[in-house]
Amino acid sequence: MIPRNRSAPSHSRHGASPLIPARRAERRTFAAIGLDPPMPSGSGLARAVSAFALWCMRCHARAEQRRHLAELDERMLKDVGITPAEAAEESTKPWWRA
C-alpha cells in the first residue's frame, strides 16, 4: 500500500477540483437573487458568446416555466394568485418574449 501524502488536500472521492461545486453554487446564488453571473473578461467574441449563451438559457427557462404554468389547475392558480385567463395569456407568449 502506498502511503498517502497528508499535506496534499483531499478534494473529493472522485478527485474533482473543489472549485467546480463552488462555482456551481455561485451560479445558483446569482440566479436565486435574480442577478446574472459576472461576464468573463477577455475578448469581445468571448463576451458575446457568453451573453448569447446566457440569453439562450433564459429563453429555455422562460419556455419551461410557461409550460408548467399551462399545466396548473384552477386551484393551484388561485394559490399563486393568478387567474386562469392571466395564466393562459402568459403561457401562450412566445419563448423569446419576456
Overview of the structural elements:
By secondary structure, the protein is mainly α. 58% of the residues lie in helices and 0% in strands. The protein contains four helices and no strands. It has helices at 19-32, 44-71, 74-80, 84-91. The longest helix is centred in the middle third of the chain and has 28 residues, at 44-71. It starts with 18 loop residues before the first helix and ends in a 7-residue tail after the last helix. Residues 6-20 have low confidence and may be disordered.
Give a count of the beta strands, DSSP E runs of length 2 or more. 0
Query: Average pLDDT, to the nearest integer?
Result: 75
User: C-alpha Rg, in Å?
Assistant: 21 Å
Structural class, judged by helices and strands? mainly alpha
Number of helices: 4
Overall shape: elongated
Q: Helicity level, as a percent range?
A: 55-70%
Return residue spans where pLDDT drops below 50 for at least 5 consecutive residues.
6-20
- Tell me the strand percentage band: under 5%
Distance between the termini: 60 Å
- Helix and strand pattern: HHHH
For the largest beta-sheet, the strand count, sense and barrel status come to: none
Topology, element by element:
Layout: H1 19-32, H2 44-71, H3 74-80, H4 84-91
Helix pairs in contact: 2-4
Jot down its keywords.
mainly alpha, 98 residues
